[in-house]
Amino acid sequence: MNRQISFESEYILHHITQNRLEELFDLELVASEKQLYQLRPDNLAFDKKNKSLVIIEYKNKFDKNVLNQVQGYHNLILENKDEYSKLVNEKIDFDNIKILIISPKFSDDQIKNARDNVELWKVSLFDDCNVEYLNLKSNEIKTIKINPDDLKITEENLLDDKTDETIELYKNFKNRLFEEFDDLNMKFLIDAVSIKAQNEYLCIVTVKSSIKIHYYAEKLEDSENRTRDISDITTGGPLSNYELTLNSENIDYAIELIKQVYNQKVIK
User: Fold this and answer.
1) CB contact at 8 A, 8 and 118
2) Is 135 exposed, middle or buried (0-12, 13-18, 19+ CB in 10 A)?
3) How far, in Å, CA of 28 to CA of 51, rounded?
4) Burial of 158 (C-beta count, 10 Å sphere; 0-12/13-18/19+)
5) Chain segment 160-214, per-residue pLDDT in tens
6) Which end of the chain is less packed: N or C, by CB atoms within 10 Å?
7) 99, 119 in Cβ contact below 8 A?
8) Strand, helix or coil for residue 9
9) Are 221 and 236 within 8 A, CB to CB?
10) For 45-73, what is the mean pLDDT?
C-alpha cells in the first residue's frame, strides 16, 4: 500500500502543479508570483472557456488565514482591472474570477465558509510519486505521476530569476569553495544552499538579490570585522552567530572563515 508523505516545501508543490496547469485544470499560466501593490498571488491563470482569470494559491501545510489571503488578491484584481487586462490578450470577464486553493489540509470551517468562486483542492503526495488532487466541493479527483527529481530543489531552481551579477558571484564563490575542500555536501533550499562536511554544518549561503553567508560557529576570528553579529536572530537551523555579505572582493576572506568553522567542527 502506498504511503502518504509530505511536500518538503511549498516551492515544490507550486512548481509541480504550475508545470501541469493545462493538464490538470485546462488553464493557461499568465504569471507566477507577479507582485502588484505588495500582494503576490502564487499563480495567475486564464480560463479560455470562461474568459476569466483564475487565482491559484499553494500551501504545503494547513494555513488558517488562506481564505482571507485569496480574497485580498481577488479585491486587488477588481481594483486594478486595467493592469491585469494587459497580461492577457483577450477580453476578460472580471465578474467570474475563480480561485483555486491547493493544500494538503483544510479545516471544516474553511470548507463550510469558502465562497462559491473558491475551489478547495486537497492535495496528497504518495511515496510512489503519485500526486492526487481532490476537489472538496465536487469530489472530483485528478492524479498525476511525477518524477522523483521533481521533489528536489536544484541549483538551477536556486539561481532561477537571479541577476547575471548574482549568478557570477555565486559561481565564483562555489568554485573557490571546492578548490579548498573536497568533502563538502551541498543541499539546495528555496533561496539558499546548506553546506556541510562529514555531517557537520559549516554555513548556509542565501542567494537572493544579494548573497549572504551565515556561519555555524560559536566563535570566529574576524580580524577585519567584516561580519555582523546575528546571534539574536532565529534562523531555524543550528547555531549561527555570524553573517557576511559576499562580494567579489571578499570571496577569499569568506573562504578563510569557512576554514575556521571546518577546523573547529571537522578537524577536532
Assistant:
1) no
2) middle
3) 11
4) buried
5) 889 999 999 999 999 999 999 999 999 998 889 999 999 899 999 999 999 999 9
6) N
7) yes
8) coil
9) no
10) 96
